[in-house]
Specification:
The chain has 450 residues and is α/β, with parallel strands linked by helices. The protein has two domains: 251 residues, Aldehyde Dehydrogenase, Chain A, domain 1; 179 residues, Aldehyde Dehydrogenase, Chain A, domain 2, CATH 3.40.309.10. The chain has a seven-stranded mixed beta sheet with strand order 12-13-14-11-10-15-16, sandwiched between helices. Strands 7-6-5-8-9-17 form a six-stranded mixed beta sheet, with helices on both faces. It has a three-stranded antiparallel beta sheet with strand order 3-4-18, with no helix packed on it. It is globular and about 65 Å long. It starts with a strand and ends with a strand.
């Protein structure tokens, strides 16, 4: 297994995979760690988690360079990712005790309460696009709850996965509270089947989620699935168009468009449609593509050649079916796909029906608010959504009608430790973050006394 810099094409490192016996041994070691870790107090866990936050900030540049080298996002975005991870650690260090505090109920017993007890080893299968954040978004609350964690990261960011394992160790967490598995896909089911593993969480494609969820169901393992989306970004005629357009482009083009919760379908009221398209075209054509390590680069390369080929095919097929390219619509070379703006997209086209994981914006006209909601919900996905308007009453009514796990009004959809994160429909199920996320992998235990 090897990691390749997507900008230079050079091999960063090669890694020896764990075989079946080594994998089972790591799981056993992680379970052994759980037997002691579950007895640590919240204060003890918080002390270590705050130390980890400090290390993330101390090593921000080191980790940012590693992220950019392995998957290609611009260096400023990598630094922001590490900083966000530090915030996440501090948030759960402060709030876990109250989130998992025993709750008491009035019943026919003399005393009735609910405990939130850790369950054991949790297995995570994580993607490459936010190689630190996606992992810690799962691992921090899971471990703060008293569980231990094993990670199968995407092969192209193995360096990041091992750096995170070392981060936990350097922060003073007990041995094997967090471990990395370097395994092929074929060994993953054996991990899920292992009786020491108590739960599974995956962030990735719909296809991967379907396969892993089926395996988790086969072995009766609790699971959480975050499977991406085709998020609507609704701009009504009374919106501040300039701000809506700039924020939308930041959302869509971040990480070269390789973000699950970014704006993907811009749904714009007809009276401002032409203005919005023109403003977006200017922003896209002024983007600087190049070396992601350079501070003035706006967008780095696609993370892998197959991803570039996929977005290229989705656009080409849609154009053949009648979509119109306003700007872009082609690869620049074997690393970059030009920032692209499409109109005339209709149901049945890949850019309308599928998740586009690349720097491609699709702008669709809507007659009015009802039509905007109809178009927004006309997708098998339901992760995030954004609404831009000055009428908060209209916005909240629309938010109620949208099929999405999160709706942001006059703001960019994003994950936040204070708020639950997850989707509906084919964007998955279960939640990460907030107290909803930390309770996904605990035993909600009722105790009744008389």
């Amino acid at each position: 297994m090897k990691s390749v810099n997507p900008y230079t094409g050079k091999v960063i490192a090669e890694y020896q995979e764990h075989d079946r016996e080594q994998t089972a041994a790591i799981i056993a070691e992680t379970d052994k760690a759980f037997q002691s870790w579950k007895h640590f107090s919240f204060d003890e866990r918080s002390r270590l988690m705050n130390r980890m936050a400090g290390l993330l900030r101390e090593r921000k540049e080191e980790y940012a360079v590693l992220i950019t080298s392995e998957m290609g996002k611009i260096i400023s975005e990598s630094r922001a990712e590490v900083e966000k991870c530090a915030w996440l650690c501090e948030y759960y260090a402060e709030h876990t005790g109250s989130m998992l505090q025993t709750e008491y109920f009035e019943t026919d017993g003399s005393k009735s309460y609910v405990r939130f007890d850790p369950v054991g080893v949790i297995y995570a299968i994580m993607p490459w696009n936010f190689p630190f954040w996606q992992v810690l978004r799962f691992a921090v609350p899971t471990i703060m709850a008293g569980n231990t964690a094993i990670l199968k990261h995407a092969p192209n960011v193995t360096g990041c996965s091992l750096a995170i394992e070392k981060l936990f160790a350097d922060a003073g967490f007990p041995d094997s509270v967090f471990r990395t598995l370097i395994i092929p896909v074929e060994l993953s089911e054996s991990v899920i089947a292992n009786p020491l593993v108590q739960g599974v969480t995956l962030t990735g494609s719909q296809r991967a989620g379907s396969a892993v969820a089926a395996q988790a169901g086969k072995y009766l393992k609790k699971n959480v699935m975050e499977l991406g989306g085709s998020d609507p970004y609704i701009v009504l005629k009374d919106a501040e168009i300039n701000n809506a357009c700039k924020t939308g482009m930041c959302s869509r083009m971040m990480n070269a468009g390789q973000v699950c919760i970014s704006a993907k379908r811009f749904i714009v009221e007809e009276s401002i449609f032409d203005e919005f398209v023109q403003d977006q075209k200017v922003l896209l054509e002024n983007m600087k593509l190049g070396d992601p390590m350079q501070e003035d680069t706006d967008m780095g390369p696609m993370a892998r050649p197959d991803l570039l080929e996929q977005i290229e095919k989705q656009v080409a097929d849609s154009v053949k079916m009648g979509a119109k390219v306003i700007t872009g619509g082609h690869r620049r070379d074997d690393k970059f796909y030009a920032p692209t703006l499409l109109v005339n997209a209709e149901k049945g086209m890949p850019v309308y029906d599928e998740e586009t994981f690349g720097p491609v914006s699709v702008v669709i006209p809507a007659k009015d608010t009802n039509d905007a909601v109809r178009i927004a919900n006309d997708t098998p996905f339901g992760l995030g959504a954004s609404i831009w308007t000055q009428d908060m009453e209209v916005a909240e009514k629309m938010a109620e009608q949208l099929d999405a796990g999160a709706v942001f009004i006059n703001g960019m959809t994003k994950s936040d430790p204070r708020l639950p994160f997850g989707g509906t429909k084919r964007s998955g199920y279960g939640r990460e973050l907030s107290y909803f996320g930390i309770r996904e992998f605990v035993n909600i235990k009722t105790v009744w006394m008389k």
